[in-house]
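Researcher: I need the complex structure. Ligand is zinc ion. Inputs:
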Amino acid sequence: MALSKIDIPRRAQHFLECGIEDCERNCEFYCNYCHIRLCKQCRDEHLKSSGNKNHEVVLYQQRERQLPVEKCKIHPTKDVDMLCEECQVPLCSKCATKGDHQKHTFVDLEAVFAENFTLCQQEISKTHEYFLPTSQDLQKEIKKDSSEIKHIMHNIRTSMKTEGETLKSLVDTVISENMKQVDQIEYSLLEDLNTQDKTLDDYITYLNDLVKELNRRLSSTKPQRLMSEKKSKIRSIPKTTKPVIQGFTAGQYNKSDVTKLL
Ligand SMILES: [Zn+2]
Ligand SMILES: [Zn+2]
Ligand SMILES: [Zn+2]
Ligand SMILES: [Zn+2]
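Model: Output:
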Protein backbone atom coordinates (compact mmCIF):
# COMPACT_ATOMS: atom_id res chain seq x y z
CA MET A 1 0.00 0.00 0.00
CA ALA A 2 1.33 3.42 -0.99
CA LEU A 3 2.08 5.84 1.83
CA SER A 4 0.16 8.67 0.18
CA LYS A 5 -3.03 6.68 0.45
CA ILE A 6 -2.63 6.39 4.22
CA ASP A 7 -1.62 9.91 5.12
CA ILE A 8 -4.78 11.66 4.08
CA PRO A 9 -5.37 15.02 5.80
CA ARG A 10 -7.53 15.04 8.94
CA ARG A 11 -10.49 16.88 7.44
CA ALA A 12 -10.87 14.11 4.84
CA GLN A 13 -10.96 11.34 7.42
CA HIS A 14 -14.76 11.21 7.53
CA PHE A 15 -14.83 10.09 3.92
CA LEU A 16 -12.06 7.50 4.15
CA GLU A 17 -12.95 4.22 2.57
CA CYS A 18 -12.01 0.83 3.89
CA GLY A 19 -8.71 -0.31 2.40
CA ILE A 20 -9.92 -3.82 1.53
CA GLU A 21 -10.45 -4.26 -2.22
CA ASP A 22 -14.06 -3.80 -3.43
CA CYS A 23 -15.25 -2.69 0.03
CA GLU A 24 -16.63 0.85 -0.08
CA ARG A 25 -17.70 1.15 3.53
CA ASN A 26 -16.36 3.81 5.86
CA CYS A 27 -13.01 3.02 7.43
CA GLU A 28 -13.01 3.16 11.23
CA PHE A 29 -10.05 0.96 12.16
CA TYR A 30 -6.45 0.46 11.27
CA CYS A 31 -4.14 -2.54 11.47
CA ASN A 32 -0.83 -1.27 12.78
CA TYR A 33 0.89 -4.43 11.56
CA CYS A 34 -0.37 -4.41 7.95
CA HIS A 35 -0.87 -0.64 7.76
CA ILE A 36 -4.29 -1.00 6.24
CA ARG A 37 -7.59 0.85 6.84
CA LEU A 38 -10.50 -1.38 7.84
CA CYS A 39 -14.24 -1.10 8.27
CA LYS A 40 -15.95 -2.94 11.13
CA GLN A 41 -16.81 -6.02 9.03
CA CYS A 42 -13.39 -6.23 7.36
CA ARG A 43 -11.70 -5.86 10.75
CA ASP A 44 -13.53 -8.93 12.05
CA GLU A 45 -12.59 -10.82 8.86
CA HIS A 46 -9.00 -9.61 9.15
CA LEU A 47 -8.58 -10.82 12.72
CA LYS A 48 -10.25 -14.16 11.92
CA SER A 49 -7.67 -14.99 9.24
CA SER A 50 -5.05 -17.41 10.44
CA GLY A 51 -1.74 -15.68 11.22
CA ASN A 52 -3.43 -12.31 11.83
CA LYS A 53 -4.51 -13.11 15.38
CA ASN A 54 -1.78 -11.00 16.97
CA HIS A 55 -2.26 -7.99 14.67
CA GLU A 56 -2.85 -4.82 16.57
CA VAL A 57 -6.02 -3.24 15.21
CA VAL A 58 -6.84 0.19 16.65
CA LEU A 59 -9.21 3.07 15.96
CA TYR A 60 -8.12 4.90 12.83
CA GLN A 61 -7.38 8.05 14.84
CA GLN A 62 -5.01 6.11 17.10
CA ARG A 63 -3.09 4.39 14.30
CA GLU A 64 0.67 4.14 14.22
CA ARG A 65 2.42 5.82 11.33
CA GLN A 66 3.98 3.59 8.74
CA LEU A 67 7.73 3.83 8.40
CA PRO A 68 8.65 5.42 5.04
CA VAL A 69 10.32 2.80 2.86
CA GLU A 70 14.06 3.29 2.46
CA LYS A 71 16.42 0.79 0.86
CA CYS A 72 19.81 0.02 2.39
CA LYS A 73 22.63 1.53 0.36
CA ILE A 74 24.85 -1.50 0.91
CA HIS A 75 22.07 -4.11 0.50
CA PRO A 76 19.65 -2.62 -2.05
CA THR A 77 17.11 -5.44 -1.69
CA LYS A 78 16.73 -4.81 2.05
CA ASP A 79 14.64 -2.09 3.77
CA VAL A 80 16.19 0.00 6.50
CA ASP A 81 13.92 -1.07 9.35
CA MET A 82 16.12 -1.50 12.45
CA LEU A 83 17.81 0.86 14.82
CA CYS A 84 21.09 0.01 16.57
CA GLU A 85 20.55 1.19 20.12
CA GLU A 86 24.24 1.66 20.90
CA CYS A 87 25.07 3.57 17.71
CA GLN A 88 21.63 5.15 17.17
CA VAL A 89 21.99 4.33 13.48
CA PRO A 90 19.19 2.97 11.25
CA LEU A 91 20.16 -0.29 9.55
CA CYS A 92 18.88 -3.12 7.42
CA SER A 93 18.71 -6.66 8.86
CA LYS A 94 21.83 -7.72 6.96
CA CYS A 95 23.92 -4.79 8.26
CA ALA A 96 22.83 -5.74 11.78
CA THR A 97 24.56 -9.10 11.58
CA LYS A 98 27.85 -7.78 10.29
CA GLY A 99 30.84 -5.66 11.25
CA ASP A 100 30.72 -3.16 14.08
CA HIS A 101 27.13 -3.89 15.12
CA GLN A 102 27.64 -7.50 16.09
CA LYS A 103 26.56 -7.98 19.73
CA HIS A 104 24.75 -4.60 19.64
CA THR A 105 21.05 -4.48 20.49
CA PHE A 106 18.47 -3.46 17.92
CA VAL A 107 14.96 -2.11 18.08
CA ASP A 108 12.18 -1.96 15.51
CA LEU A 109 12.76 1.28 13.58
CA GLU A 110 9.05 1.45 12.79
CA ALA A 111 8.16 1.51 16.49
CA VAL A 112 10.70 4.30 17.10
CA PHE A 113 9.38 6.18 14.09
CA ALA A 114 5.77 5.82 15.27
CA GLU A 115 6.74 6.94 18.76
CA ASN A 116 8.63 9.99 17.45
CA PHE A 117 5.73 10.78 15.14
CA THR A 118 3.37 10.79 18.12
CA LEU A 119 5.84 12.87 20.17
CA CYS A 120 6.05 15.40 17.33
CA GLN A 121 2.27 15.61 17.18
CA GLN A 122 2.16 16.10 20.93
CA GLU A 123 4.74 18.89 20.66
CA ILE A 124 2.62 20.55 17.99
CA SER A 125 -0.52 20.37 20.07
CA LYS A 126 1.33 21.54 23.21
CA THR A 127 2.62 24.47 21.18
CA HIS A 128 -0.88 25.30 20.01
CA GLU A 129 -2.56 24.74 23.35
CA TYR A 130 0.00 26.27 25.69
CA PHE A 131 3.14 27.93 24.33
CA LEU A 132 1.56 30.02 21.56
CA PRO A 133 -1.48 31.30 23.49
CA THR A 134 0.64 31.97 26.59
CA SER A 135 3.17 33.98 24.58
CA GLN A 136 0.37 35.87 22.88
CA ASP A 137 -1.21 36.60 26.26
CA LEU A 138 2.16 37.89 27.49
CA GLN A 139 2.38 40.10 24.43
CA LYS A 140 -1.11 41.47 25.13
CA GLU A 141 -0.04 42.08 28.72
CA ILE A 142 3.04 43.96 27.50
CA LYS A 143 0.91 46.11 25.18
CA LYS A 144 -1.45 46.81 28.06
CA ASP A 145 1.47 47.69 30.35
CA SER A 146 3.05 50.04 27.84
CA SER A 147 -0.21 51.89 27.20
CA GLU A 148 -0.71 52.12 30.97
CA ILE A 149 2.80 53.54 31.36
CA LYS A 150 2.08 56.11 28.63
CA HIS A 151 -1.09 57.07 30.46
CA ILE A 152 0.67 57.39 33.83
CA MET A 153 3.51 59.42 32.33
CA HIS A 154 1.03 61.70 30.59
CA ASN A 155 -0.65 62.37 33.94
CA ILE A 156 2.69 63.02 35.63
CA ARG A 157 3.63 65.50 32.90
CA THR A 158 0.28 67.26 33.26
CA SER A 159 0.63 67.48 37.06
CA MET A 160 4.19 68.77 36.74
CA LYS A 161 3.07 71.48 34.30
CA THR A 162 0.21 72.49 36.60
CA GLU A 163 2.56 72.60 39.58
CA GLY A 164 4.99 74.76 37.58
CA GLU A 165 2.22 77.14 36.50
CA THR A 166 1.04 77.42 40.11
CA LEU A 167 4.54 78.22 41.31
CA LYS A 168 5.01 80.79 38.53
CA SER A 169 1.77 82.52 39.45
CA LEU A 170 2.69 82.46 43.16
CA VAL A 171 6.03 84.05 42.27
CA ASP A 172 4.17 86.71 40.25
CA THR A 173 1.82 87.39 43.16
CA VAL A 174 4.64 87.68 45.70
CA ILE A 175 6.71 89.90 43.38
CA SER A 176 3.76 92.22 42.76
CA GLU A 177 3.09 92.40 46.53
CA ASN A 178 6.76 93.19 47.11
CA MET A 179 6.59 95.87 44.40
CA LYS A 180 3.65 97.48 46.22
CA GLN A 181 5.66 97.44 49.42
CA VAL A 182 8.62 99.08 47.65
CA ASP A 183 6.19 101.70 46.22
CA GLN A 184 4.92 102.43 49.76
CA ILE A 185 8.42 102.72 51.20
CA GLU A 186 9.40 105.02 48.33
CA TYR A 187 6.28 107.14 48.88
CA SER A 188 6.89 107.51 52.59
CA LEU A 189 10.62 108.29 52.18
CA LEU A 190 9.91 110.89 49.49
CA GLU A 191 7.14 112.41 51.59
CA ASP A 192 9.55 112.71 54.49
CA LEU A 193 12.17 114.32 52.23
CA ASN A 194 9.53 116.70 50.80
CA THR A 195 8.58 117.81 54.29
CA GLN A 196 12.24 118.47 55.11
CA ASP A 197 12.68 120.32 51.78
CA LYS A 198 9.67 122.50 52.61
CA THR A 199 10.95 123.19 56.09
CA LEU A 200 14.28 124.29 54.60
CA ASP A 201 12.42 126.43 52.00
CA ASP A 202 10.63 128.17 54.88
CA TYR A 203 13.87 128.53 56.79
CA ILE A 204 15.68 130.05 53.78
CA THR A 205 12.78 132.49 53.31
CA TYR A 206 13.12 133.37 57.01
CA LEU A 207 16.88 133.89 56.58
CA ASN A 208 16.39 136.10 53.52
CA ASP A 209 13.75 138.12 55.36
CA LEU A 210 16.08 138.38 58.32
CA VAL A 211 18.97 139.63 56.16
CA LYS A 212 16.62 142.19 54.57
CA GLU A 213 15.48 143.39 57.96
CA LEU A 214 19.03 143.64 59.29
CA ASN A 215 20.16 145.52 56.21
CA ARG A 216 17.26 147.85 56.66
CA ARG A 217 18.42 148.53 60.21
CA LEU A 218 21.97 149.12 59.05
CA SER A 219 20.85 151.71 56.56
CA SER A 220 18.59 153.49 59.02
CA THR A 221 19.47 157.12 59.77
CA LYS A 222 18.34 156.74 63.28
CA PRO A 223 21.10 155.09 65.29
CA GLN A 224 18.63 154.64 68.11
CA ARG A 225 16.76 152.26 66.07
CA LEU A 226 19.74 149.97 65.70
CA MET A 227 20.26 150.13 69.42
CA SER A 228 16.68 149.85 70.54
CA GLU A 229 15.70 146.87 68.58
CA LYS A 230 16.14 143.73 70.47
CA LYS A 231 19.20 141.81 69.46
CA SER A 232 17.80 139.15 67.26
CA LYS A 233 19.08 135.64 67.57
CA ILE A 234 19.21 133.60 64.35
CA ARG A 235 17.00 130.57 64.53
CA SER A 236 18.96 127.33 64.26
CA ILE A 237 18.94 125.27 61.11
CA PRO A 238 16.12 122.75 61.19
CA LYS A 239 17.21 119.20 61.76
CA THR A 240 17.24 116.95 58.71
CA THR A 241 17.48 113.19 58.68
CA LYS A 242 19.09 111.04 56.02
CA PRO A 243 16.71 108.36 54.82
CA VAL A 244 17.73 104.80 55.66
CA ILE A 245 17.38 102.59 52.59
CA GLN A 246 17.39 98.84 52.78
CA GLY A 247 18.93 97.45 49.62
CA PHE A 248 17.93 94.39 47.69
CA THR A 249 20.36 91.65 46.72
CA ALA A 250 19.54 89.89 43.47
CA GLY A 251 20.74 86.42 42.48
CA GLN A 252 20.00 84.62 45.74
CA TYR A 253 18.28 81.65 44.05
CA ASN A 254 19.54 79.18 41.51
CA LYS A 255 18.14 76.26 39.55
CA SER A 256 18.64 73.71 42.32
CA ASP A 257 16.51 75.81 44.71
CA VAL A 258 13.69 75.64 42.18
CA THR A 259 14.30 71.91 41.66
CA LYS A 260 13.94 71.38 45.43
CA LEU A 261 10.65 73.28 45.36
CA LEU A 262 9.19 71.10 42.62
ZN1 LIG B 1 -3.18 -7.00 9.79
ZN1 LIG C 1 -14.27 -3.21 4.48
ZN1 LIG D 1 22.31 -3.21 4.82
ZN1 LIG E 1 25.75 -0.44 16.43
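Model: Summary of the prediction. The chain has a mean pLDDT of 89.
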